[in-house]
TrEMBL record:
InterPro entries assigned: AmpC-like, Beta-lactam-related, Beta-lactam/transpept-like, DUF7586
Domain Beta-lactamase-related: 15-312
Pfam annotation, one family: Beta-lactamase
Keyword terms of this UniProt record: Hydrolase
One of the record's GO molecular function terms: hydrolase activity
Domain DUF7586: 341-425
Native species: Rhizocola hellebori
UniProt protein name: Serine hydrolase
Length: 447
């Protein structure tokens, strides 16, 4: 439950968006610590289906990452390995997921979102004669056909239509009973709102065939709250927390001047109201959608509407999340000491030096090691145990690098090896194997 004042602020923000954006209907929700904390609908219900457009891509990305985690593909694999014969065969799975493949943004005409999928029955029909617009891996260039190809990869490796794999691997395990490829009553009707008059025109709804993995799905506020939890925390049997965290990492630098958004593996990142969010927006004729998660604060927000344009749906969803974060901040977890301490691990903590730069190695109660700069800037990362006495970096400069405790002939801890950096208990310890050696004169007060 939220405070009455927070509830009022959320309702005001949603009502403001619906009124000023002239939306026929809107629904929104905020999830806190995995539970729906607030939901509201205007001129509709929270169980009404809306088309979610490109948020569909994140579902496809989850299916691809499941295949990766099962060892059925590698993100570095070229498309030709799993889907031979297309004009995109030289692009990697990772490049398709992150929109860095260089593929065209859209299919050859007519516009796929408003025309039946039967017009493009084969993969060649969604690519056209010259689908490559940029060198692969060089820049972000959003590609709807790229995700149609990823959906085809799912079909090839699973041996079933991608929608069937979606149902079996994501929707059923998460309990998303109101998410489907085609609309199921009760569902919203999509509208275009006249730019100069308060009148409506129904938008055409098409089954998009081969392009369905780019934007076909319909869903509800309640179902998308379940999906938001997956993107925040992972879910055993669906996708691990480590894998969804990997999906949130940008593939290449953003192009926006303000650097306020980027794209990971099927997930957008968006900086709004001083917070870094991850998720996806979506649009199809007659519908807009946004889902953002903020793992650091245990919050997510979803917003749906049935208008073609006129509402900054991504900002609305971000604002709803921020209202809760600002007015009811997350209560820090109660500090508790470690229940069991390995003396050798405890001996690793404390000050270390990389040359003259001071670092501190901490042992928090969550079982990781944390390396921080004693000057308050520079090197800093967290390390997870590998199970063999070494540790792997989780963030920062040393993400993926190995931390090795090194011992002398007597078995005593002598120094740390961190990706070839030698960390010692005193600056440039002459007893440690400092690369390049140490001046035998040692430290002095003269230049």
């Amino acid at each position: 439950m939220l405070l009455a004042t927070t509830d009022r602020l959320l309702l005001h923000r949603l009502a403001q968006a619906q009124s000023e954006g002239r939306a026929p209907a809107m629904a929104a929700a905020v999830v806190r610590e995995g539970e729906v904390a607030w939901r509201h609908a205007i001129e509709t219900t929270t169980d009404t289906q809306f088309r979610i457009g490109s948020l569909t891509k994140t579902f496809v990305a989850v299916l691809i990452m499941r295949l990766r985690d099962e060892g059925l593909l590698d993100l570095a694999d070229l498309l030709d390995k799993h889907l031979p014969g297309t004009k995109a065969g030289a692009m990697s799975i990772a490049q398709l997921l992150s929109h860095t493949s260089g593929l065209a943004s859209e299919t050859p005409g007519p516009w796929w979102e408003r025309t039946p999928g039967e017009l493009r029955p084969e993969l060649a029909d969604i690519l056209g004669e010259a689908p490559v617009k940029h060198p692969a891996g060089r820049r972000h260039h959003y590609s709807n056909p790229g995700f149609a190809l990823l959906g085809a990869v799912v079909e090839r490796l699973r041996g079933v239509p991608w929608g069937q794999a979606l149902q079996r691997e994501i929707l059923d395990p998460l309990g998303m009973r109101r998410t489907s490829l085609l609309p199921q009553e009760p569902h919203a009707r999509g509208f275009a709102v006249h730019p100069w008059a308060d009148v409506l025109q129904p938008e055409v709804v098409q089954e998009t065939g081969r392009m369905a993995p780019a934007g076909q799905l319909w869903s509800t506020i309640d179902d998308l709250c379940l999906f938001a939890n997956l993107l925040s925390f992972g879910r055993e049997g669906v996708l691990s927390a480590d894998t969804v965290a990997e999906m949130r990492v940008p593939g290449v630098a953003p192009e926006e001047a303000a650097w306020d958004s980027a794209y990971g593996l099927g997930m957008q990142t968006y900086r709004a109201n001083g917070r870094l969010l991850a998720g996806h927006t979506g649009s199809m004729p007659g519908f807009l959608c946004a889902l953002w998660v903020n793992v650091a604060e245990g919050l997510s927000a979803v917003a749906l509407t049935n208008t073609t344009s006129g509402i900054a749906i991504g900002q609305l969803s971000a604002d709803l999340l921020s209202i809760v974060a600002d007015h009811e901040p997350r209560i820090p977890a109660t500090w508790k000491p470690l229940s069991d301490v390995d003396p050798e691990l405890l001996a690793m903590t404390g000050p270390w030096y990389w040359g003259p730069a001071g670092l501190g190695l901490k042992l928090p109660a969550d079982g990781v090691l944390e390396l921080v700069s004693l000057s308050g800037s520079g090197l800093g990362t967290r390390f997870r145990p590998n199970g063999d006495g070494t540790w792997v970096g989780l963030s920062g400069y040393f993400a993926g690098e190995t931390l090795r405790p090194m011992r002398d002939a007597q078995g005593n801890l002598s120094h740390l090896d961190l990706g070839s950096f030698v960390l010692t208990r005193q600056p440039y310890d002459p007893q440690a194997p400092i690369p390049g050696g140490v001046d035998p004169a040692g430290w002095s007060g003269t230049v």
